[in-house]
Amino acid sequence: MSPLIALVPVVLRRLGTALLQLLAVATLVFAMLFLLPGDPVMILLGQDSNPTPEAVAALREKLGLDRPIAVQYLDWLGGVLRGDFGRSLANDYPVAQYIAQTLPRTLELAVAAILVAVVIGLPVGIAAALRRGTLADSLLTSATTLGISVPVYILGALLILIFAQGLNWLPASGYTDLSRNALEHFRKLVLPAVTLGLGLAASIARMTRASMLEILGRDFVRTLRAKGMGETQIIWQHVLRSAAIPIVTIVGLQLGNLLGGTVLVEALFNWPGLATMLVKAVGDRDYPMVQGAILTIAAAFILINLAVELIYSLLDPRIRRRRQ
Amino acid sequence: MMNLLSLCATAALSALLGSAALAEGSLYFGLSGEPRTLDTKVNAGAPARTIRLAIHRGLLNYGTTGELSPELAESFEVSADALSYTFRLREAKFHDGTPVTAADVKATLDYLTAEASTATYKAELSVIDTIATPDERTVVITLKKPFVPFPHYLALPESAILPASWIAANAETPDAAPIGAGPFRFVTWERGREVVVEKFDGYYKPGKPAVDEIHYVFYGDENTRVNAIRSGDVDIIDYVPWKDAAALEQDPAITLDSVGGPFMMLQFNTKEGPFADPRVRQAVSYAIERSAIINTAFNGRGTPLWGIAVPEGTMGWSEAAANHFSHDPDKAKALLAEAGYPDGFEARLLSTAQYGFHQNTAIAVQAELAKIGIKLTLDLPDWAGRMAKNTAGDYDVLVAGTAGDITDPDWLSNFFYGGETLVRLNNSAWFNDAEINALLDEGRTTLDPAKRAEVYDRFVQRALETSPFVFLMWRDQSFAVRDTVEGFKNLPGFLTFQSGITVEDVVLK
Hints:
The structure holds two protein chains of two kinds. Chain A is built from 13 helices and no strands. By secondary structure, chain A is mainly alpha-helical. Chain B has three domains: 4-57 and 170-259 and 479-508, 3-Layer(aba) Sandwich (D-Maltodextrin-Binding Protein, domain 2), CATH 3.40.190.10; 60-168, Dipeptide-binding Protein, domain 1 (Alpha-Beta Complex), CATH 3.90.76; 261-475, Dipeptide-binding Protein, domain 3, CATH 3.10.105.10. Chain B has helices at 2-17, 46-55, 102-113, 122-125, 150-154, 164-170, 222-230, 242-250, 278-287, 290-298, 319-322, 329-338, 356-370, 383-392, 411-416, 434-445, 449-466; strands at residues 26-31, 60-62, 68-70, 73-78, 84-89, 128-135, 138-143, 184-190, 194-199, 213-218, 236-237, 254-268, 302-304, 345-350, 374-379, 397-402, 469-482, 485-486, 507-508. In chain B, 33% of the residues lie in helices and 22% in strands. Chain B is an alpha+beta fold. The longest helix of chain B is centred in the C-terminal third of the chain and has 18 residues, at 449-466. In chain B, strands 1, 8, 9, 10, 11, 12, 13, 14, 15, 16 and 17 form an eleven-stranded mixed β-sheet that branches. A four-stranded antiparallel β-sheet of chain B has the order 4-5-7-6, covered by helices on one side. At the A-B interface, helix 2, helix 3, helix 5, helix 7 and helix 8 of A face helix 1, helix 7 and helix 14 of B.
């Protein structure tokens, strides 16, 4: 059986589970929102006004918030199944459009962060492994420990202090459309992407170092050396390739966590992505917006994990066999 | 990956070309939040007002000096009985090119006071009886009864004049395409990010505005907002956090524009329990050392308030009334004992964890009142939760920070008047004092300024006796402005939240 066909039942089963997970998330979030104090109708009518009870009732009816919660929930769920995420309570703007605008920015940030992580993490890990036991190794390894433990909001604040306010090389915050000014766009991407990516870079560096050291100690490396193969060739052609699988796994597994990290990083750099939208929607008690954003994030998280798992089993036949 | 490569190529190319794509005359204004709506009739908070004051003008507005300034009306006359106001309109245009006419003014005021209207100041404007439009440029408004502060309510950003045709088409979707007669024309609102407005060439003040476009960028996080101005991402920010004020003052490229204006106070649920007794509320006032709050929550940037929050120099202010209370824990304990609580009591203090100065004020109040035996439990939901509890009367004591709506002393009505709705945002829940209501009614209808001042003197005495609020301090409210910007001004006192009107004077250096 070809490995791809063998995966079909696994994928179907996992997709089924994913749907159930999404339903659970949606239900939980809906319930939580209604338990929170705070009334979107009062927020909409203005904080400094004293709306008449008639005006409150009229708006509540218009927004459909006067119906029983179960009815509201089923109505919303029915809409989602038809691909309709509803409209923002605050301004009647379609939720799907909000998501279409903001999700690409969050994904761009996440992808940029992974690039940063790989570009920094991989060389550092390799360098540390090759200089095992030297001062350089200790320094690099300590740096990675620091990188993993420093929270993004402290790291981000430090980077802003140094590169935006001290050296004035990069903007501290904001977002410019790619079509408007591509250079500004990428200049504004640098600090948030580095902030989000450094932690992952540290994880990758540690994993690379450990994995390389393990492979370097194997018999086949000794054989290659005995055969007189050059050290550079051994490292690049044989060791790195064997060490790659755990590194790929780390990157994949961390993608989901990166999405979570964007909540803080977007706030820190005023990056107008999905997380920024979500935080504002919670403050406004804009139920359809919160629901739509959470559902999207949950779906992305589940899909990414599913994809990672599938790629992993394609790469490593042992895992596939265990599944079957 | 291909895409990424082409992106990099584009980036490199535009690096070579320099950043010519950025418009020269653009002002970047970092706002402390994204408005829920730009609907003119609703007071949706300071950021919404700031943006709307670029797009819209009313018959009158609070001008750049803080005085009432004639805008779409070039002048107005009041009849001797104060029942009839005649406005003479100037030649002005809306952004769609149509002239501002008497019919537009009538349509706007009808729209604000319509039965189903959700306008914030509907109650105040409903004093209008009839609106006559003898010609295109004259509007005669007749009131049901004399209402001295009437022009002030017309000057609020929520009374902006809209085209009659726009109201007919867009009343249900006010955010879709706002049109006004202000110096800037609405271009776009990208949710979650910014509102952009551009210079309106047909503005009625010659030579204004000088800026080509303004980007109102939303910076909900205060630290991010401060970073943005320090690194030059934006030119102006509102709501400078008090903790950062000193650092911004020392920045050679930035000017901190501060005024005293808003105040912090405690509201009480006066329905039942200890706080129903005015002596207990007075005890609270004597117990709290105001400097503890100013230092804890505002980095020393404020002025103690030992009376009623009546600004100096306005009706009702006097040296004695302004210093009625003092820090006197013994007197506070005596008052508590007199009210039947010699050993104090327990109560809930509502504030919010979302804004540092609200939370820190609550913490300072808790510490001060513990000294006279009042043990407060903090209730710190997010802002929306706090607002819901506030308007439901679900609190014993509540920390509030606000300002009067207008500069006329009638702003006090919104806070002190009992009336039909006894649980409101800005009142002490269930407080309803017949004498105070009568004095506020008298103040609204007394034409003679000297007599009116007397009415407010009597009001302040009664307000001190009943003490429905404990006023804590005037807080500094600041904008930070980069030195490349000239002409922006933080309006004094309560008008600080309407400073956005001065963008019409802004020049970029």
